[in-house]
Amino acid sequence: MRNQVNRVALIGTGFVGSSYAFAMLNQGVCEEFVMIDLNKEKSEGDAMDLNHGLAFAPSPTKIWFGDYSDCKDADLVVICAGANQKPGETRLDLVEKNTAIFKGIVEQVMASGFDGIFLVATNPVDILTYVTWKFSGLPKERVIGSGTILDTARFRFLLGDYFNVDTRNVHAYIIGEHGDTELPVWSHADIAGRTISDWAKNKPDFKQEDLDQLFINVRDAAYQIIQRKGATFYGIAMGLVRVTKAILQNENSVLTVSAYLNNQYGQNDVFIGVPAVVNRNGIREVVEISLSQVEQEQFNHSAEVLTKIIKTISNLPK
């Protein structure tokens, strides 16, 4: 027992990692926050910079630049390290590069004696969550990917913007691969308990093409942002903090994370974005919602794409 002090270890302090650290400090989520990166100078600078903002933070946080040995007492290890997605590159193009990077990272974390929960953000996140699970040997419940939390947030924002309703009152999911084969679950989307089709009836200028384009904008948002500023990091950082809070505060919150499927949605042996109950033990359960025939077919295709990629990775433990 460590007097219930929550320690989070961040691996990778690039755009996403440093944005996550900043959001963590602003929301006062944990008591100890250690930053680990090959670029020692940059990470030390980040830790110094964040510490100088503690006077304005909602609660005290011990922040420092550390190494893999600091993972031993961590409750949560968040991995944001890896090669970035470049303009014109899909998330799946990053598989080979980042699998090799992750092997070294996960093995060093586990060598420290770590026995907590992994949260993976690096793309392709569904594949790398599977890779982390295999290399760590941890129970599947304690390996979580950021999945489609960001896609779902984008979906909620654009729907709220379209119908002029607060995004926090929009309840809609994007599931599947965090990537080109993801899908919107229109059959369960609602705003304040009313279906999207019901809201559409009361919108004088509504066109079905608007919703079709809205989803395309959700799916392709990363490409649009990367083209404009080189990387996406604020939205995913906020999403990672949301998952972190659900874990450390034992919330039992339902979030569309990348979770391991074992017969749910008719799929096996794949990590993929689905609604799941998240708490202090990791993923308590996958929430299996009924999909329309079209949605189920789209989800099957998404899972098949990921499964085929996983089968090409040669150095995974059995």
Write the layout of secondary structure elements.
Elements: E1 7-11, H1 15-27, E2 32-36, H2 40-51, E3 62-65, E4 76-79, H3 95-111, E5 117-120, H4 125-136, E6 143-145, H5 149-163, E7 170-171, E8 174-175, E9 183-184, E10 190-191, E11 194-195, H6 196-201, H7 208-219, H8 221-229, H9 234-248, E12 253-262, E13 268-279, E14 282-286, H10 293-311
Parallel strand pairs: 1-2, 1-4, 2-3, 4-5, 5-6
Antiparallel strand pairs: 7-10, 8-9, 10-11, 12-13, 13-14
Explain this structure.
- This protein is an alpha/beta fold and 318 residues long.
- It has a domain at 7-145: 3-Layer(aba) Sandwich (Rossmann fold), CATH 3.40.50.
- Helix content is 41%, strand content 19%.
- It contains ten helices and 14 strands.
- It has helices at 15-27, 40-51, 95-111, 125-136, 149-163, 196-201, 208-219, 221-229, 234-248, 293-311, and strands at 7-11, 32-36, 62-65, 76-79, 117-120, 143-145, 170-171, 174-175, 183-184, 190-191, 194-195, 253-262, 268-279, 282-286.
- It has a six-stranded parallel β-sheet with strand order 3-2-1-4-5-6, with helices on both faces. A three-stranded antiparallel β-sheet has the order 7-10-11. It has a three-stranded antiparallel β-sheet with strand order 12-13-14.
- Strand 5, helix 4 (125-136) and strand 6 (143-145) form a beta-alpha-beta unit.
- Helix 1 (15-27) crosses helix 9, helix 3 (95-111) packs parallel to helix 4 (125-136) and helix 5 (149-163) packs antiparallel against helix 7 (208-219).
- The longest helix has 19 residues, at 293-311.
- The protein is globular.
- The mean pLDDT is 94.
